[in-house]
Amino acid sequence: MELDDPGKEETEEDGPGRLAERLRWLYLFAFWSQFKPSEPFLVDYLIEEKGIGSEEVYQDVLDLFVYSRLPFLILVGFCAEMESCGYRAILVLGAASGVLTVLLTRFGVQMCLQQAAQFTVSAAFASRVAVPSLAFTLCLPSQFQEAIHTVKAVMLFSNCCASALGELLRDGDWVPLKVLFDLSALGQVLSLMCAACLPVPRASVATPTASAISNTLEEHLLPRSPTAARCSPKSACEVFKALVQDVWLSLWLRRVMWWTAWALAMNPIHGLTLTYWQSMVRSKHILKDHNGYLSACMYLAASVGGPQYD
After folding, report:
1. Which of 38, 111, 141, 296 would staple 180 via disulfide (CB 3.0–4.6 Å)?
2. Which family is annotated (predicted)?
3. Residue 88 lies inside a defined structural domain of this protein
4. 25: helix, coil or strand?
5. pTM (predicted TM-score)
6. Domain of 297?
7. Virtual CA dihedral for 304, 305, 306, 309, nearest 10 degrees?
8. Is the pLDDT of residue 130 over 80?
9. Residue 22 in contact with residue 28, Cβ under 8 Å?
């Protein structure tokens, strides 16, 4: 099935130098957005530094992150398709939420502030789904696969570097846990600066999901008038209808259907494991853990063991 992509022809803005510059800012944002050396030690920090009980951490704090992820994901998906918002604005707001999360965790002394940080981190996590979408709008169709795989590898590698750095600083007793959150705050501020520098989508190509892919699927899967054309949605109702239609048409493709089913099954398990595994370690009365090295190994294996592009 060949997509009728309006962006196949190169323009002056599609030269190698311009394309590399646009993607460079996206890669920098992807790296710093995930650079949080404090992440593997969040539970240790809340218990040892903030004085929150172990049961309170996973019953009254971390569970808020689990419950709020889905609403924020739905909100991000809806807002990203609005012409008044878009992918770039979503990433800027998500980066700002990341900064606020670290500040609330680092300086918040009340339980309600730590609980509020779970909502801001949910917003930050949800905004990251716009990273691949923005990559689609910044490069040529022939570069889609390379750009997506690279940005995913950068995000995973950043998690690896941050976790390893946090573990090294903690094991050497060089810095207290709160300093790791200071480093995380620095990383989030840098990600916000990179988000502000993200370029606007290429003017010569429409978003693939909104034009080429949807039109091609409609032609092959649904009967339609030769004169019918898919227009960019304007109102909130039209955006919602377009999103539902895109999902429905995509699921007609068997590979997409099976991949979606696998993702829906694995993502909740993955999310719950990443959220609660630190509490599970402490429940075994293991006080001298090596969470950073464990996280670094997991993310490194994922970044180098993913699919390759030609």
Report:
1. 38
2. Belongs to the reduced folate carrier (RFC) transporter (TC 2.A.48) family.
3. yes
4. helix
5. 0.74
6. 17-205+253-304
7. 70
8. yes
9. no
**C-alpha angle 151/157/163, rounded to 5°?**
140
Q: What's residue 232's pLDDT? A: 53
pLDDT bucket at 225, cuts 50 / 70 / 90: very low
Identify the residue whose tokens are 């971390």. Answer: 62
Q: Given this model, what pLDDT does residue 97 score? A: 96
Side chain identity, residue 17: G
Query: At 169, which amino acid appears?
Result: L
Pair 131, 34: CB distance under 8 Å: no
Q: Which residue, 94, 78, 82, 37, is CA-closest to 247?
A: 78
Q: Where are the alpha helices (DSSP H) in the chain?
A: 16-33, 42-48, 54-56, 62-80, 86-107, 111-127, 130-138, 144-171, 177-196, 212-221, 236-251, 254-283, 291-304
Q: Which of 117, 94, 80 is nearest to 194 (CA)?
A: 94
pLDDT band at 271 (very low <50, low <70, confident <90, very high): low
| 50 falls within a domain | yes
Contact 54, 47 (CB under 8 A): yes
Nearest CA to 195 out of 299, 302, 47, 93 is that of 93
Burial label for 206, CB within 10 Å (0-12, 13-18, 19+), is middle
- Measured in residues, the chain has a length of 310
Give 295's contacts (C-beta < 8 A, 6+ positions apart). 39, 40, 159, 160, 163
Angle of helix 130-138 relative to helix 144-171, nearest 10 degrees? Answer: 130
CA distance 303 to 152: 7
Question: Residue 100's domain is classified under what CATH number?
Answer: 1.20.1250.20
**How far is it, in rounded angstroms, from Cα 115 to Cα 13?**
45
Question: 3-class DSSP state for residue 204?
Answer: coil
Q: Amino acid identity, residue 241?
A: K
